[in-house]
Every structure is written in structure tokens, then in C-alpha cells.
Amino acid sequence: MPEKISALCSPKRFLMGAGPSMVDPRVYEGMAQPIVSHLDPFLFQVTEDIRKHLAVAFGTKNEFTLAISGTGTAGMETSITNFVSPGDKFLVFANGYFCDRICEIGRRQGANVVRFDKPWGEVASDEEARSAILRERPRVVAYVQAETSTGVFQEGKALCDAAHEVEALVISDVVTSLGCMPVEIDKTGIDIGFSCVQKGLACPPGLSPITLSPRALEILRARENDIRTFYFDLKLLDEYYKGGHRYHHTAPITMFYALREGLAVIAEEGIENRWERHRLGHRALVAGLEAMGLEMHVSDPAIRLPMLNTVRVPDGIDGTAVRARLRDEFSIEISGGFGDLASKIFRIGIMGVPAQRENILRLLEGLEVSLRAEGYATHASGTEAAEKVYASA
Amino acid sequence: MPEKISALCSPKRFLMGAGPSMVDPRVYEGMAQPIVSHLDPFLFQVTEDIRKHLAVAFGTKNEFTLAISGTGTAGMETSITNFVSPGDKFLVFANGYFCDRICEIGRRQGANVVRFDKPWGEVASDEEARSAILRERPRVVAYVQAETSTGVFQEGKALCDAAHEVEALVISDVVTSLGCMPVEIDKTGIDIGFSCVQKGLACPPGLSPITLSPRALEILRARENDIRTFYFDLKLLDEYYKGGHRYHHTAPITMFYALREGLAVIAEEGIENRWERHRLGHRALVAGLEAMGLEMHVSDPAIRLPMLNTVRVPDGIDGTAVRARLRDEFSIEISGGFGDLASKIFRIGIMGVPAQRENILRLLEGLEVSLRAEGYATHASGTEAAEKVYASA
Hints:
- The first copy, chain A, is an alpha/beta fold.
- Chain A folds into two domains: 25-267, 3-Layer(aba) Sandwich (Aspartate Aminotransferase, domain 2), CATH 3.40.640; 270-391, Aspartate Aminotransferase, domain 1 (Alpha-Beta Complex), CATH 3.90.1150.10.
- Chain A contains 14 helices and 14 strands.
- The longest helix of chain A has 21 residues, at 271-291.
């Protein structure tokens, strides 16, 4: 029998964890626009807008820049299945959860996966990366530019140079960096970069931006064998989004509207202003956390991600209880740690929307109250220290 | 330099083609609700609502009923890659474009694909299906319940019975039927059914509902080897959506909100009322088309899909010009044919929202004017014939 079902009403959470992050109001407005069909010329105007603006965020002149119809892990799988063939030697610089995931997808693909491991919170030095690559002479190399599980940044220029010396392609996970800090696909020498839309681009999850260097594109277009996946076959997606618009799948139109609007917001702000907003927010946040007596998990400030801050849970304090209190009393969500770092760190994201003075102060205040309630005596006021950073900026 | 970018403003099209179809206003409202994270208990309340209501539309008691984070083709690839192993004999009943796609994905998967072909617009008879299955003794059988390229319905009960006699699993593409007509997963004996959300469920594209029979689920859970795909691995998705909610990917939250609302609209209407609305709309539409002197492509009325109507383009008439006129002068979009049927048929969808008297009359009026402008003399009034059907209903 017909029934009355109350309208969806989601709880209002202020998302300052490892992602998804807050969605920009303009993005919600864009999603209310009526859909067109997946072969409508209007959709391809939208994807062209997206191509143009993604290029700025990626730091690339690559012709091939589009978004996969799946979330970030779909972009990861697409990058690997299109460029790593069964039996290929695939060298992965592993220092966190998402590096492990790259290894896992490579293994399922039948690649000969070789890991170069570093502890979670560190990165391979330029010399280590270079010597591993020259020794292994892999077909494809992968690394994570912004490790969401640890808060570590890996620049990758020396790694890419060495890879190109042995004619390897480089895949880089830029899921957490895009829209928050310079990604520099071209300057770094990344051949295949993939990302997501629910962090620095301030959209709901659902698409995975991807960009291919001219060399990767040439290899793709010259490929004669079909790869195993049809849905993620970049050759078919290239034919769908470019020129003839040959039908491949029914693109998630509304998600493309969202991404177009998320990128429009970034263009209006100016990408460099946006990066600076994150840098400043990071400085203020770290000053606040350290004033409270907390310790950053990534000891070297030079490799700390500005938008994803990992901080150690103080000894004897129940981190899960702190996060629950922060959520229940302040409606702010932050993340805990993964794997080896479970219960040892908090992960505080300021990706996109949250990287603003009032949000950072609110988070510091809520964290202070929640830590105290769980028995931690903060040393000094976190908000005061953060305000000083903003005042002197 | 920062620039001002005008807000997205999409053209208003009334979508009566092969999909996507019109989105229900309540779905747009649902998508404006703030997102939560992919591990938030609220998301799993939403996915539980979805599971419950999808079961009604699918006609199943299956425990495993969820939505894949990709569009319909992602559901097709998921079904095949999880249940067809390299080397398996995979029998496909082929009578249209999407059957060909199933074969293509099976081929890429390394299966031994065996086709049983019928002309586009016909289906294998029960006897043909049965004898092909008993002869070939495949590991997995696939057929398309509702072929979007031809407008043909294939019920599949005898096919499923024969498949189970030889212990084969049956995959069925129910992309176009779900939400528009009885799908009857359980009564028919379908082991793996996959669909989309942008047709009968009145959502924007972006998810692919999928359901597994107890036997398919048992095989899935007993599987010891990892399959090649990580993103589409149903075993991992089962762990994410059920019980422990083990992180797998960042689910497209807003699309899940959309689907929850699309299904709520169906529950409020009542699924049987909805089916009846499509049946009646189909009868009215066909009466109108035939009154105008047009011929249905599927000659046997018993296997015509109610929601996806294929009608022949009259001899000497430029179908593309007719569709363009309908779009430009009436803002109504219908589809042309695919492959062998390109330029030979119109495909008129009344999936979900459009299956209502006023829309069908508007379509018939627009089509009549457009056909006349392109030189076709309609025999009698299409709208009058359609109104009679509604009046006598």
C-alpha cells in the first residue's frame, strides 16, 4: 500500500576530517539545475569548462584532462589498469594507506609489484627514490603526493626525473592536494595524475579528475590491445569526451554540474589565493595545536601537508571519545588514524571551505574543550595562538 | 587573476528519449541536503532505506541489494567481473546493443563468450533459450530484460530455469525496466540483476542498483581468489555496506540521497500504481502513433516494453531533422536508433516522470507537427487517439 515517507533530512556536520570536506553552497545550487542527456552539446560545454579549470588546479597544459565517473579509488584503478599491464614491473613508493591500496590494485592487475617502504609519516629522500628506480628499472612508478593517512607531502620531482631516465611512466595520487596546494603536474613530471572532487574542490564525492602527460596520451592512443576494463578504458572515454562524442556510458550529469561550479568558485577566488588561504590556515592551526601542548605527527615541517594535519593523541587520552565529543557538542567531524596509526593520531582537514579563520578557531576551541573533558590539561590557549598568526599575516 | 564566472544554467529539456529521463523535483531537493562522511551512521541509514525500497522495485527478498558507485555500465561490468572468470563459458542471448556490450565486457574479462543471436527487435523463444543452454552448458548466462536499443522485453523465466538445470548463474540487465514495470527478480530466477537510477527511478545518473540471489551471494562469499577489480569487488562492497562498515571507497553521498528520495517517491505512489501508469501511458502513446500512420518497430505487442517505445521513421523522412525540430520547437528530446537501427527508428521513453497524460499528449502533438514540417502526412490525430485511451481507462 502507498505510504508517506518523510523527506530526507541529513544531520548538519561541519566536516574537518580527512574528507569528504564541506561542499560550497554554489555547488549545491548547480546540482539543482535540470539535467540534460549524456550526449547533449551542453554537457560537453560543461566538460570543456571543467577541462580548462582543472588544468589550472593541476598545473598542467595536458590536452587530456577529464573526470572519471567514479570516486577517487576509481581514478586510482583507472590509472593503474590503463598503464600497468600484467607482468609489468611496478615500483610503488609506500609510506601510507593509499600507497598500500595502489600496491593492492597493481597486484590484482597481475603486475610485478615492488615496494620501497618508509615508515608512515616519512618519505623516501630524492637519493633513495633515484637509486631505487635506477636499480629496479620499473615500467611504471607510483607515489602519493599527499598521503591522507599520514599527512605527508611527497614532492616527487627527483623521482619523476629518475623514472623518465629509465623510460618509466609515473602515476601520482593527488587526491588530497588538488585545489588546496600546488600540484604542479607539468613541473614535477607526473605522467598520470588522479584526484577526487570532495576535498579541495568542495563538491560531493562522485567524480575522479585525471590528467595524462603527452607521453602517457601517446602510449594510450597507440595501444592496440584492449585492456580488461571497459568502464575505465581511457581510450573509450577519450572518444566520448572529445570530438565525435562516441557513446560510452551515461555520464553522471549532475556531478559534472557540481564540479563545474566547484571549479568556478576556485577560479573566482584565484588558485594562488586559495593556496595561500590553506597555508595560512595550516600555520594558524599548527600554532594553536602546539600551544595546547599537542605534537604534530609529521616531525619535519617541510613535508607537512597544509590541508591535512595529523596530530598525536596525547598519551592516556581516548582519541575516539574526544572525536565523539567534538562531533556531538560542536558538530565538528575530524578523523582518527588508519592502520598502524589507529587511535594514535587525529587527522584534521581544512580542505577547501574550512580553511578560514573562524572555522579554525572554532575547531581549536572545540578540541580544547573535548580534550579537557577527557582529562587532558592543555598548556595554553590554542585559539589565542592561532589568532596571533592571523593577526600578523 | 580572479575572474567572475557566470553560474551554471542548463537548458530546460523535457527528456522523453532512451534515458536519462526527467528527475523528480523531490530528488533535486534531496540533493541539496548537506553531505555527511562516507562512514557516518546516517549514510548507512540511507543505504538501508535504499536496500528496503529497491527490493520492492526489483521484486526480490535478496539480502544483498545495494547500489554501485558508477552508472549502469559500471553495474554491468561489476556483474560480469564478479561472476564470470577468465576461461568460463559465458552464453549471451544477443538481440541488441546492450547485449553486444555484455559480450564485449565478457571478452575483455577473458571469458569464452558464446552468442545466441536474434534480429534486433525479436527475442529467443523459450524453446530456443532452453535448447541453447542445455547444448552449451555454460557457467554463466546473460540476457537483457529490457533492451533499450530495440524496445524489446525478454521475460526470461524459461531461460533461468534451464540455466539452473545446468547449474549456471543468470545475469540480467534490468537497466530500463526497474521502476517502470515488474522486474520480478525472484519469480524469474535472476541471480544477478543490475540497473541504473536515471530512468524509472527518476534520479540523475550516477549509481547502479544491483541485487544478488542467495546462491550468487553464497558463491561470492565463498570466493577465495581476489578478482581483478578492486573498485567493483562486491565482496569488499558487501563488507563496506554491511555490519562492520569497513572502508572501501568514498561513496557518492549526494547520489545516495537522490536515490533514497527517488525510491521514496515510488513508495508513496505505490509500485503497482506506477507500473499501471506506464502501461496506460504506453497504450495511449501507441494508439496515438498508430493513428498517425506510424508503425511500431517491435511487431509483437506482447514483447513491447511499456516505457521505451520504438517506432519506425517513415520512408523518405529525415528522422534526425524531426528530432531536432521536436527539441528546438517543443523542448522535447527523444532518441534515434543505434547501430543497425540508426536513422530507422525513434525511441520514445516515458520512464518515470513522463508517463502521464499531459506529457504523452504534448509529445504526440510535437511529433505530429515536426513530422508534417518534414513532409510526412499524418493519417489522423495522434492526440485524439491517445485521449480516447485515457478516457476509457
